[in-house]
Structures are given as C-alpha cells and as structure tokens.
Design brief:
Blueprint: H1 8-31, H2 36-53, H3 68-95, E1 99-104, H4 109-138, H5 144-162, H6 168-188, H7 192-208, E2 214-218
Antiparallel strand pairs: 1-2
Amino acid sequence: MKTSRPPVKQVAGTLSWGLALQGALLLAAAYLQRNAMGAAAVQAAMTEFGAGRLGVTWSDPTAPPPTFPAIARRVLRGAGYATAAAAGILVLAFATKAASYHGVSIAGVLPLFNGLLLAVLLSVRDELLLRGVVLRAFGRAVPSAAELVVCGLVAAAAAWGSKEAATSMETFSAGVLGVAFAALWRIDRGAWMAWGANAALHYLLNTVVHGAVFDIRIAQGSWAQGLL
C-alpha cells in the first residue's frame, strides 16, 4: 500500500511550530538559568505538551497501546545500546590518549540521583523536539536515509546554538548522535527506545564518569570533548 505523503505546506508548518517551541524553550532556560533541574523539568513539560499538539506520540498510534512491561523492555533495550556505545567511546578515548583515568570518586547518592533525573528530563526534551517533531513533519515524505540526515543536521544546529563556545567536535558529535537516535525512533516506531538510549548515554558520559563514580578527565582539545 502506498504511503501517503504530507504536502510541503504541512511539512513547513510543523517545522515552523517546532522552531517556535525551540524558541520558547530557550526563553525558559534563560529565565531559569540558575536552576538547572527546574529548567530541565519545565522544558520537558513544555516539549511534551507542544510536541503532543503537533501529533508526536511515544508509540505507534496505529498499533494497540503498549503495556508497561513492553515499554520497559523498549527503554532498557535502548539503554543497553547506549551502555555498549559509552563503553566503546571510553575504550577509544583511553586508547587515543584523549582521556585519562584518575580513580574512583563516589560522590554519594544525591549527585547520582540528580544526574539521572537531569538526563531523563533533558532526553525527553531532545527526543520529542529534535527527533519526534522532525520525523512527524516529514511523515515519510522523503527516504528514511534523508530523514536521518535531517535529524542529524537539526541536532548539530541545536548543539551549536546552545552555547557560545560550542566546538566543531561537539557539533559534529551531536549530529552523529542525532542520526543514531532517529534510527532508533524508526526501528522502535516511537520514542521509548531512543529516550532510554539518550538518557543512559548522557547519564553515563556526563555524570558517572565525571566525578559521581569515576574520575575520568578529558585532554584539552581532543576529539572526546564532544562526547565526554
């Protein structure tokens, strides 16, 4: 059966609303810049509402609603992929002298919990906005490979615009991850697997290895600065 494709006007309209939502998120982040957790929670809620209004769903709307065990399996599968990816990144970073190990540094339960919660909230924002809205806009209007490339470019642009001194490697890494997470959306026909992968990867590479459990330091100017 031939897949219906949205008209150009609909694609442009959805992307325009996505840009408007991104602008609102940036304003919220600026207003709550002294409260990272509060900003992440507000942004996640805003994105959930805004993306939902644009028709972005966590699971395939044409399939029966998934059970909680099914959702949990999808999330854990994504987290498993992310764990393997994080291990590979760390091995490569050590092998290329881009990172150095400085022992165990257990910071306590609270930093671990806060880091996990922050990763969960930010991954809600990023998956629904940077992948969900983009994929919803195109709705198979272009080949899947092109959709993945667009998601990568959007993720790279978001990383580049998120801070004044974003490096080229940070921008490139965000683009590569954007493609990978978008591929998980297509495989899973929804957000759960990509959300689990996003949250797990950022929790491991931003919290666990940077003082919450292990003290791993990144060489200045190395390729790993874009990921670790």
